[in-house]
Specification:
The chain is an alpha/beta fold and 240 residues long. Helices cover 32% and strands 29% of the residues. Bound molecules: adenosine-5'-diphosphate (ADP) and magnesium ion (MG). This is ABC transporter ATP-binding protein.
């Protein structure tokens, strides 16, 4: 398996005028390829800041971040963007889909930056939508879908480029509990297929699907524990 993520004493300080916010004080964490990890912790504890750094959307103020054996701590924004497009698939609480674009177009979007031609983009996007059970919705616009289906489109978009890591910040935060279970079932399948998944959640029931739970408090790791009995609802049928 091997390490895919290593942060060594990373710090993040936001400066706003004369005020400084120490969002991450010193975070040292290792994640292996194929792990399924939840970040938990109170609001303001640094979860999103850490996800942004892990996802190469932002850099630490101090410390070292090694992603896939590469030190990315001091990379320029352009270099980070290149790594991000190759290695990371993002899933957000608010789905972040383009409202005027079809599902197929939304999912194909990351492939434009990756340099694929249109027929290849559409083929890959179709397969990604098929893998989340939405092959019969490819021409629909996001507002013609349920919340759970929209999140599936967002997950297909995160998967389309075959990233090394899937990062999901409160992926079920806008979904009812039954729909959330369907999304967790999908994450369970992705993990079974070998994907590395890191998600942020407030909900114990959701975190319980992951195999490891890291709790943050005040920009520090408060606890980091394996979950000996992750929830797997594979014997349940989930419908929407
Ligand atoms: P969480 O996701 O756990 O709620 P965040 O990582 O969003 O926590 O925030 C951690 C701390 O950093 C908070 O005090 C927050 O107000 C601050 N913060 C987050 N993003 C910014 C930013 N872009 N500029 C200034 N302060 C920020
Ligand atoms: Mg947050």
């Amino acid at each position: 398996m091997g390490k895919i993520i290593e942060t060594i004493e990373i710090k993040k300080t936001y400066t706003m005028g004369s005020e400084k916010v120490h969002a991450l004080q010193s975070i040292s964490i290792e994640i292996n390829r194929g792990e399924y990890v939840s970040f938990m912790g109170p609001s303001g504890s640094g979860k999103s800041t850490l996800m942004n750094i892990i996802g190469c959307l932002d850099s630490p103020t101090d410390g070292t971040y090694i992603l896939n054996n590469k030190d990315v701590s001091d990379m320029t924004d352009n270099e980070l963007a290149e790594i991000r497009n190759k290695e990371i698939g993002f899933v957000f609480q608010t789905f972040n889909l383009l409202p005027r674009a079809s599902c197929l177009e939304n999912v194909a979007l990351p492939l434009i930056y990756a340099g694929y031609n249109k027929p290849d983009r559409e083929d890959k996007a179709f397969l990604a939508l098929k893998s989340v059970g939405l092959e019969d919705r490819i021409r629909h616009k996001p507002n013609e879908l349920s919340g759970g289906q929209r999140q599936r489109v967002a997950i297909a978009r995160a998967l389309v480029n075959d990233p090394s890591i899937i990062l999901a910040d409160e992926p079920t935060g806008n979904l009812d509990s039954k729909t959330s279970l369907g999304i967790m079932e999908l994450f369970h399948e992705l993990h079974q297929k070998g994907n590395t998944i890191i998600m942020v959640t407030h909900e114990d029931d959701i975190a319980h699907y992951s195999h490891r739970i890291v709790r943050l408090r005040d920009g520090l790791v408060e606890s980091d524990e394996m979950n000996p009995h992750p929830t797997s609802n594979k014997f349940q049928t989930v419908s929407e």
